[in-house]
């Protein structure tokens, strides 16, 4: 009985759409975050003077500090984007699958 339900869910076209959409969206966000993070690290490694440039003449704060903060904030924003889409489209697809199988 339980295995039949699992097979029915896996065979459902909306389930296939849900899995594909969610996986592609998650990988896109992951790729974007990795590019930002490792891009920052590569700039630190190969062009440290670029990020070490002061924001203004005589300032202690360098360009690297706000860029690092933006990277951290962007991780929170990307998490929020994923949660927003998960609570919207992904939950709607899950609800539709449940309704179709009942």
Descriptive notes:
- It is a single chain.
- It contains four helices and no strands.
- It has one domain.
- The chain has helices spanning about 1-10, 15-45, 50, 65-100.
- By secondary structure, the protein is an all-alpha fold.
- The longest helix has about 40 residues, at about 65-100.
- The protein is about 85% helix and about 0% strand.
Number of helical elements: 4
Count the beta strands: 0
Q: How would you characterize the largest beta sheet?
A: none
Q: State the distance separating the first and last CA atoms.
A: 14 Å
Q: Tell me, briefly, the overall form.
A: elongated
Overview in brief:
The chain is mostly helical and 102 residues long.
List the main descriptive attributes of the protein structure presented here:
84% helix, mainly alpha, 4 helices, single chain
List the SSEs and their pairings.
Layout: H1 2-11, H2 13-46, H3 48-51, H4 64-101
């Amino acid at each position: 009985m339980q295995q039949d339900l699992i097979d029915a869910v896996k065979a459902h076209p909306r389930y296939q759409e849900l899995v594909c959409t969610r996986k592609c969206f998650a990988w896109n966000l992951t790729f974007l975050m990795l590019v930002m993070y490792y891009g920052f690290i590569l700039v630190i490694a190969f062009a440290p003077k670029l990020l070490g440039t002061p924001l203004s003449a005589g300032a202690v704060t360098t360009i690297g500090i706000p860029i690092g903060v933006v990277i951290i904030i962007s991780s929170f924003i990307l998490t929020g984007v994923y949660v927003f889409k998960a609570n919207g489209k992904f939950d709607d697809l899950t609800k539709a699958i449940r309704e179709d199988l009942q």
